[in-house]
Amino acid sequence: MNSATVGAIATGVIGVVGGLLNQLVRRPPGLRDEIHADLELWKELPDEVHSKTVLMDHINSRIVHLSTQSDAKSRGWNGVVIGLSFALIIGAGTIFVWNLGHLWRLLAALLALLTLLFAGLGLADLEKTERDEKGNKIQRKPTPVSPEYHEAEND
């Protein structure tokens, strides 16, 4: 097989696998979206309806749950697919450039390093971390433990 055929096959496989993973990992509407929809429904209900108070109690319990529970840890599958896809594409280019020989092998060495970089970035998202509803990592700032912490810091 020549390199054009290998590249076309790799591109097709990456597209299919990426599309399948995107569909499998797609998240349902988040809790905030559901609370917002329930609030819109609550506004539309007449005041004399008993279910309006029941709905508000349900909304309040979900808000408390949202504020007290930490977000679930999950993997960033989009980053994994994108990182490994770039690694595969650049890796195929590396092999092609390497086969050109002579000074082209210097460029192939740089491309090999770039391949390793993208593979590492893709694999880094396999770690389970806290994420928000959209799948973005939650960055938590450290909080001071006591007032003495601030006094020691200012001295």
In short:
This protein is mainly α and 155 residues long.
Our estimate of the beta-strand percent is under 5%
Shape descriptor reads elongated
**Which bin fits the share of residues in helices?**
55-70%
Q: H/E element string?
A: HHHEHHEH
User: How would a crystallographer describe the biggest sheet?
Assistant: 2 strands, antiparallel
Radius of gyration (CA) equals: 25 Å
Number of helices: 6
How far apart the termini lie comes to: 70 Å
What is the total number of structural domains? 1
Describe this structure in words.
A two-stranded antiparallel sheet has the order 1-2. It has one domain (3-154). α1 packs antiparallel against α4 (77-98), α2 (31-44) packs antiparallel against α3 and α4 (77-98) runs antiparallel to α5 (104-124). It has helices spanning 3-25, 31-44, 50-68, 77-98, 104-124, 147-154, and strands spanning 73-74, 129-130. It contains 6 helices and 2 strands, in the order αααβααβα. The chain is mainly α and 155 residues long.
Features:
mainly alpha; 2 strands; 155 residues; two-stranded antiparallel ribbon
Q: What layout of secondary structure does this protein have?
A:
Layout: H1 3-25, H2 31-44, H3 50-68, E1 73-74, H4 77-98, H5 104-124, E2 129-130, H6 147-154
Antiparallel strand pairs: 1-2
